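User: C-alpha cells for this one?
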Amino acid sequence: MRIGMLVRRFDPAGGGTERDFASSARCLSRVGHEVRIYAARAHAESWQDMTVRRLPVPVFPRSLQVLGFGLLADRFARRDGAELTISFGRTVDSDLIRCEGGAHAAYLEAARQWESRATLAARSLSPYHAAQCRMEASGFRSSRLKMVIAISRLVGDDLERRFAIPHSKIKVLYNGVDCERFQNAANPTVREEVRGRFGIGPSDRMVLFIGHGFGRKGLGKLIEAWPMADANAYLIVAGEDHGSAFYRRMAQRLGIEGRVIFLGKRNDISNLLAAADVAALPSLFEAFGNVVLEGMAAGLPVLTSARCGAAEVLPAQMKPFVVQNPMDPADIARCLNALLAAPRELGAIMRAAAQQYTWEHFGDRMAALIAQIAGSRRDST
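Assistant:
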C-alpha cells in the first residue's frame, strides 16, 4: 500500500515526536508498504529509501505554516498517489491521526497552572495557537477519519470527550524505549564517576529530573518539596528552560541551593540515569513522558504524577508511589521519600516492565493497526 506520512517538521535525529514518527515510517516500510514522507520542513529529500517531499507552505509566520500544512498536506499526498494518509501533525481529512502531545486545546487549559498572567493573555491573542486549535478540531471531526492512535489512555479519553470521537475509533499505542541504550545502569564504574563529578557520596541519594519546559513538567513543585525530602538527597536538573534563573532563585530562597544542581542541556542522559537512585517527572500536564520509560529501562524507580500518561505503563508495584496531586509539594515529598526508602528489588521490576515497550513492539503494533484499517477499507468497497 502507498502510505503518505504527514509531519510538519521531519528530523529523524530528533527526539519525542520525531523519534516516534521515524520508528513508524521505518516499520511500515520494512513490512512492505511504500512510504512517502510529506513535511513543511525537512532536513533531507530522502531517508532510508523513502522519499521525503517538502510541501510548498510558508515557513513564517508560524500560524500560516500551521494552516498551510494542515489544509494542504493530505490533499498533496493523495494527489501524489497515497492510498492512505497518517498524520503526526494537525491536518484536515487524514485517514489516521497519531496524537502524541494531546489536544492543543487541553494544553492551553492546563497552562493556567504554571504560566504567568501576562503569558496567558498573550497566548490567548496568538494567531498561532488559534490556528493549532482550528486545525486539530477539523482533523478530529473529519468524516474521512478512520482511527486515532493516542499516545496514552489519558490522551485518548480527553480526545473522546472533547471532539465526540467514537470510542471504537481510538486506539492506545505507547511510545517505545531503547533498552540497550540504558545498559550503563548496571555499570558501577559509571555510577561512581558521575556521582563523584557532582560531589555526591556513596551514601547520598541522587534524584534526576530530565526535560525542557520546567513549569509544565513540575520542577517548581518538586523544588518546593525538597525541604521535606530526605536530607541526604540531591536533585540534579538536566535540561534547558528560559526561566532557569527563576528556579535557581527558588532553591536559594528555600535554602536548598546546595542540594539542587542545574546542569543545562546534556547529551549523556544514559550515564546520568546510571548514577541516579530515582528519576523524577512530576508533570502537571504530560501526554506521555518518555523519561518515565527511560528511567524504567535504566532500572530506576520513577516519581511521576497521575497527570502523566506514562504512569499507565508503570508496573503494579509502583502505583502506590504515583503523585496524585502534583500541585501539592507535600504529596510529592511523601511519594519521593517512599521511593527513596523502597527496596532495591524494585529496579529489576522496573527494567523488566520497560522491556515490554521496545520500539520493535511499537512498530509491530503500528503495522497491525494499519493492516486493520486497510482491511476495513477493502470490506467497505
